[in-house]
Write a structure and sequence with these properties.
The protein has 424 residues and is α/β, with parallel strands linked by helices. It contains 20 helices and eleven strands. It has two domains: 290 residues, HUPs (Rossmann fold, 3-Layer(aba) Sandwich), CATH 3.40.50.620; 95 residues, Tyrosyl-Transfer RNA Synthetase. The longest helix is centred in the C-terminal third of the chain and has 24 residues. The two termini are 31 Å apart. Bound molecules: tryptophan. Tryptophan binds next to strand 5 and strand 8.
Length: 424
């Protein structure tokens, strides 16, 4: 934060990265011993079989851990059990969730904002996670939701034509709609479509651009001198939906409705930047709730890639493909032979089938039993895989059924700028 106006460019970058440290007890964040884990919007990798060290990441990013106190407070205020993705630490980090809960307690409004970069027609199970959780948040807190489809971002970063990217946004919108968002409470927009029609959104973009220097985006995102200027200014586009004034049709021109952003932790750099500029624009900082990454079938070292069909289960996969992929590619934490497995037991920390069950098997007791029996060696990997295949086939099959009914017209109706079912 350059409020004092005297910092050199170097200092600004440093301060920006540590932006939230005022609410952290530990001031001396040791950045250097985390060099093995790479986590940024374009790259996620770890050299450990267990994947990214998320506790270290919380320190490095200066966010807060989701602890039992926060979960208990959510349960108390909403009168229902926390979502299993919260209970199991998959949503593990946050910024200012207590502030959002304070608002909810006082019956004051807030809204949700999330998004997706439409890089391919087929979404995979990992893409589903933030949206499933967002749906739960929306239903639990009964708040408006805006979903940004960054077709412009994908156009800038990938080898895609602009029209193609826009088409992918429409196709992805259909998958997102099929998850079951309430049309009266949800606005989905593609950047190529919406921004040109919204002077208010554009103005927030430019205000953001004025407040962030080239040095700062270099520091936060690693941009270099030969990156096109589209990339360099893109963060302002992802920042703008965090401000209610970007959606005058929804918020009746109110500038002060606070925002909560559920996202995977790799998107945090965008919102560290947003939180830094917000007060200088006269806005509130968005709150955040972050998830871990959904592991690739091959193991937790990497995030899945939509361009490698064997790294993941896609929402378009057939039952047979699901079965084959899980059996063939899901990394096993079991012993090399049945004898060894029975003697030493399986390792749930690295077993991808077990990891996937933690995301999708809702029954806590059953999951605990599986963990116990697999770790002791009683259950073999084949059993875990069979259980997982059935669960995935059901989720994907049901999704495909709902997706069929989402026509272009249905998608356009979610994407039309309009008032939602809330009064401001
Ligand atoms: N940049 C994100 C991606 O590539 C898309 C996105 C835009 C997003 N706005 C967001 C994700 C807000 C989470 C929250 O997937």
């Amino acid at each position: 934060m350059s409020e004092n106006g005297t910092g050199t460019a170097e200092n600004e970058i440093e301060n920006m990265n540590l932006e939230d440290n005022h609410d952290k007890p530990s001031e001396n964040v040791d950045v250097d011993n985390n060099l093995d884990d790479v986590v940024n919007p374009w790259n996620v990798s770890s050299s450990s079989a267990k994947g990214v060290d998320y506790d270290k990441l919380i320190k490095r990013f200066g966010s807060s851990k989701i602890d039992d106190v926060l979960i208990a407070r959510i349960e108390k205020l909403t009168g229902k059990p926390a979502h299993h993705l919260l209970r199991r630490g998959i949503f593990f980090s946050h910024r200012e969730m207590h502030h959002i809960l304070d608002l909810y307690e006082k019956k004051k409004p807030f809204y949700l904002y999330t998004g997706r970069g439409p890089s391919s027609t087929a979404m995979h199970m990992g893409h589903l996670i933030p949206f499933l959780f967002t749906k739960w948040l929306q239903e639990t807190f009964d708040v408006p939701l805006v979903i940004q489809l960054t077709d412009d971002e994908k156009y800038l970063w990938k080898d895609l034509q602009a029209e193609e990217a826009k088409q992918l946004a429409l196709e992805n919108a259909k998958d997102i709609i099929a998850i079951g968002f309430d049309i009266n409470k949800t606005f989905i927009f593609s950047d190529f479509n919406y921004i040109g029609q919204s002077p208010a959104f554009y103005m927030n973009m430019v205000k953001t651009q004025k407040l962030v220097t080239f040095n700062q985006v270099k520091g936060i995102f690693g941009f270099g001198d030969s990156d096109c200027i589209g990339k360099i200014s893109f963060p302002a586009i992802q920042a703008s939906p965090s401000f209610s004034s970007s959606f005058p049709q929804i918020f009746n021109n109110r500038k002060d409705v606070p925002c909560l952003i559920p996202c995977a932790i790799d998107q945090d750099p965008y919102f560290r930047m947003t939180r830094d500029v917000a007060p200088r624009m006269g806005y509130q900082k968005p709150a955040l709730i972050h998830s871990t990454f959904f592991p690739a079938l091959q193991g937790a070292q990497t995030k899945m890639s939509a361009s490698d069909p064997n790294s993941s289960i896609f929402l378009t996969d057939t039952n047979k493909q699901i079965k084959t992929k899980v059996n063939k590619y899901a990394f096993s934490g079991g012993g090399d032979t049945v004898e060894e497995h029975k003697e030493k037991g399986g390792n749930c920390d690295v077993d991808v089938s077990y990891q996937y069950l933690t995301f999708f098997l809702e029954d806590d007791d059953r999951l605990a039993q599986i963990k116990k029996d697999y770790s002791s060696g009683e259950l073999l990997t084949g059993y875990l895989k069979k259980e997982l295949v059935e669960i995935l086939q059901k989720i994907v099959g049901d999704h495909q059924q709902r997706r069929k009914n989402v026509t272009d017209e249905v998608a356009y109706s979610y994407m039309k700028p309009r008032k939602l079912d809330f009064n401001y």
